[in-house]
Write a structure and sequence with these properties.
Length: 331
Amino acid sequence: MSDLSNSYAEFESEVSRWMAAGAGDFEEMAMRVFEFQRSACVEYGRFCAEKPAPSDWREIPAVPVDIFRRMALRSFPAERTIRTFRTSGTTGEGFGEHHFCSLSLYEQAAKFGWANAGLPADGNVVSLIASAADCPHSSLSQMASWLAPGGRSFFGEWEQLAERLESADDVVLFGTALAFLDFFESLGARGLFLPSGSLAVETGGYKGTRREMPKEDLYRLFETKLGLAAESVWNEYGMTELTSQFYSRGFGAHCGPPWCRALVVDPVSGREVGEGETGVLQIFDAANLGSVSAIRTRDLGIRRGAGFELIGRDPAALPRGCSRSAEEMLS
């Protein structure tokens, strides 16, 4: 292996141990990841060369998420790529690509992040997401395959899912907002009241699809169709260009695992906004070791303590995302 390969493997083990411990000096880790990626990723190094040297993790240069559509961002040799996940590729926007030389940190982030949010992962997760076998370029499908393995995916098979739920013990349903809406519509006037302790995790939004529904209305359907109050429904915030996820419960703020941080920044100055103010989400994800860990998204949020209240995509952004992909498959 090249020196870069050796460096990545050593760093991966170190970040993995940090994630498993769930605690440590985030500032030190973030700065070391930055120094590694600035040297290992040529494109990121050029980007950083035009920026002031950061004095803490908040000042680490964050690449606009659109860069993933324009160039391959790798902090490892290109020939060691084993998997590439793609964004949905909305018309006129093209595909964003996230390359991996190992899925170890991604699997760890998915499972540990899920548990860190307080969600159970003891074999009762049922997926409304297309399988990784059917969608090999979908990072969300890969995540769902780890959380709901062994044929527990019912994407588009709504009658079979209804039958499964009618005789189920407590379950955790995991799917896109659009898939849940499609499932609810398939039930017609029926309602399935899940056992006590059951939960749902919705993700993805609608992102320019033919259907839109306010979160309050969607969560009302969770109650009328499944008997789940808002506090039993989580939202997962993630994207192809990240490796880790942020979660909110009911109508609360989104929070991430210990190896991630989210900033809400002014889109012009790049400075963090004040408590309760609105800005663009900027994420630092240490599990993004193989690409770039600091990313400026196109999503808007309100700063809520160490977390954020998600508003949605920047109105200037083109529609894209996992729900759009799901809509195309369902139709």
